[in-house]
């Protein structure tokens, strides 16, 4: 039974490492901000979760699993928030290709500055 758990753990580590590698390649290869944010958040977070599950399985310790739960939760909370903030700043700076947007929900915020009160 321990050999099966070890093989599952190794497969999860390999899958997680490949996802993290694809995230890194996506950051280098994609040209626009939304595509880079997608590459930085989605596969990287899933890769971290897979690696954390593998560590918890292979350590066979409830203390290690309990330690990894907050790590995963913090990653799930901070990755989308940071991607949102970077994407919004790219929009405000004008470094975002507005022609590629299907819906521009922030178009009216460009007309009236937030500090203008209107």
UniProtKB/TrEMBL annotation:
<keyword id="KW-1133">Transmembrane helix</keyword>
<feature type="transmembrane region" description="Helical">
    <location>
        <begin position="40"/>
        <end position="58"/>
    </location>
</feature>
<comment type="similarity">
    <text>Belongs to the CPA3 antiporters (TC 2.A.63) subunit G family.</text>
</comment>
<dbReference type="Pfam" id="PF03334">
    <property type="entry name" value="PhaG_MnhG_YufB"/>
</dbReference>
<feature type="transmembrane region" description="Helical">
    <location>
        <begin position="64"/>
        <end position="83"/>
    </location>
</feature>
<keyword id="KW-0472">Membrane</keyword>
<feature type="transmembrane region" description="Helical">
    <location>
        <begin position="6"/>
        <end position="28"/>
    </location>
</feature>
<dbReference type="GO" id="GO:0015385">
    <property type="term" value="F:sodium:proton antiporter activity"/>
</dbReference>
<keyword id="KW-0812">Transmembrane</keyword>
<dbReference type="InterPro" id="IPR005133">
    <property type="entry name" value="PhaG_MnhG_YufB"/>
</dbReference>
<protein>
    <submittedName>
        <fullName>Multicomponent Na+:H+ antiporter subunit G</fullName>
    </submittedName>
</protein>
């Amino acid at each position: 039974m321990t050999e099966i758990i070890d093989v599952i753990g190794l497969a999860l580590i390999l899958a997680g490492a490949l996802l993290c590698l694809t995230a890194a390649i996506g950051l280098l290869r994609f040209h626009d901000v939304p595509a880079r944010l997608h590459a930085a958040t989605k596969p990287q977070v899933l890769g971290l979760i897979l690696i954390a599950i593998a560590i918890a399985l292979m350590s066979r310790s409830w203390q290690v699993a309990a330690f990894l739960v907050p790590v995963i939760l913090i990653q799930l909370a901070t990755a989308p928030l940071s991607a949102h903030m970077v994407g919004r700043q790219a929009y405000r700076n004008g470094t975002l290709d507005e022609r590629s947007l299907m819906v521009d929900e922030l178009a009216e915020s460009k007309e009236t500055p937030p500090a203008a009160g209107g």
